[in-house]
Amino acid sequence: MMSEGRANKFGFAISRSRLIDYDATDRKVREYVTLREPSFRLCFACGGCTATCTAGQHTSFNLRRMNTYIRRGEIEPLREEVTRCMLCGKCLLVCPRGVNTRNVVAVAAEAIRKLGRNEL
Questions:
Q1: pLDDT tens string 20-60
Q2: Of 30, 60, 85, 100, which one's alpha carbon is 20 to 30 angstroms from that of 53?
Q3: Using an 8 Å Cβ cutoff, are 88 and 54 in contact?
Q4: Is residue 8, in this structure, part of any structural domain at all?
Q5: What whole-number percentage of the chain has pLDDT above 70?
């Protein structure tokens, strides 16, 4: 196994700011969303939903990024992201895996509210 100091000699290193510690993240929201919308597990992040998103064309909303936040357990950026969705459902029409993306957003928003009230 290479030490971090030795890895730097080859011109690469793990950037601490980009390091994701999955053991330190909160899995409650992911488990809540997956339990209430099982199709969420089928998403393979193709980006079709983000490409057709009306809210994404007018704001910085990105459904693919939101799904990543849920999977990683990154609550703070997720809290901001879910408020941008208009729940129009265009993403449902283009998803090749049939993920109920609209419900994923609604359930994620519900989970964030419950988390804030310590009900999750």
A1: 777 878 899 999 999 999 999 999 999 999 999 999 999 99
A2: 30
A3: yes
A4: no
A5: 88
Distances (CA, A) of 44 to 47, 96, 120: 9, 10, 26
What domain range includes position 92? 24-116
Please tell me the predicted confidence (pLDDT) of residue 3.
54
Please name which of 40, 37, 89 lies closest in space to residue 66, comparing C-alpha atoms.
40
Q: pTM for this structure?
A: 0.81
Q: For residue 75, how many other CB atoms are within 10 A of its CB?
A: 17
Torsion of CA 45, 70, 95, 100, to 10 degrees: 160
For residue 111, pLDDT beyond 70: yes
DSSP per position, 11-73: T----GGG---TTTS--HHHHHHHHH-GGGGG----SHHHHH-HHHHHSS--HHHHHHHHHHT
